[in-house]
Amino acid sequence: LAKLTGNATYSDWATKSYQWSNGSGLVENYNVFQGTSVRDCEEIDHSQWTDNAGTYIIGAAYMYNVTDGSSIWKSTLDGLLNKTLTTFFPDGIAKELCEATGCPDSQHIAKGILIRNLVDTMSITPYTSSVILPVVRTTAVAAAKACDENRCAFEWNWKETNSSNDLENDLSALQAVQALLSEQNFQAKAGSGDVSGGIAKPSGNVGNNLRTGLMSVIFGTMITVLL
């Protein structure tokens, strides 16, 4: 909302929300945890999921863009991004921490949400493509290999497809594969910056890029449902 409306109130509340997340322990050392107790917000659920991390990353990317490259939001974005890539991309492939023991069905769409947010982050803050694109590429290949003629598996680092009948798995894999559709555009805008240094100029074409990405998601989702 801060990006789309230019209303400073939304920016102020985004800052307050992130500060509260840090103060409450919901975010600690750039690890994003699942939640807190409703009554007093003192009991932290320390489980970690890809979609939560992606939500904070895209939020920080928007704030970096809105504030014209604020050093505070750059360090926040870089910290969240580096921690997420370290935690959820072993061998460069997106993975939930619970995959070794089994994940709840409600989280089968989460990796797709993270990938979508990473793609949008590259559009909003092009300098991040230097570290995001490599894992997007390897994840896309792995996700495609995890699909058979009809369905896709939840886990993408297996040597066999292990497909299921969960639509969430199909949508998540679709997000990973179609993330490469705008790769050339990201590379052209990335410049020479990287996550550890340099500040990229915020993109002036965010609206067009997001609309293009949204249409890709909608079109791809329709195809998957029809299949």
Automatic annotation (TrEMBL):
GO BP annotation list: carbohydrate catabolic process; fungal-type cell wall biogenesis
Broad class of enzyme this protein falls into: hydrolase
EC number in record: 3.2.1.101
InterPro entries assigned: 6-hairpin_glycosidase_sf, Glyco_hydro_76, Mannan-1_6-alpha_mannosidase
Domain of life (superkingdom): Eukaryota
Residue ranges crossing the lipid bilayer per the database entry: none
GO function terms (MF aspect): mannan endo-1,6-alpha-mannosidase activity
Catalytic activity: Random hydrolysis of (1->6)-alpha-D-mannosidic linkages in unbranched (1->6)-mannans
Pfam families: Glyco_hydro_76
Xref: Gene3D superfamilies: 1.50.10.20
Keywords annotated in UniProt: Glycoprotein, Glycosidase, Hydrolase, Signal
Annotated family: Belongs to the glycosyl hydrolase 76 family.
Protein name: mannan endo-1,6-alpha-mannosidase
Species the sequence originates in: Hymenoscyphus albidus
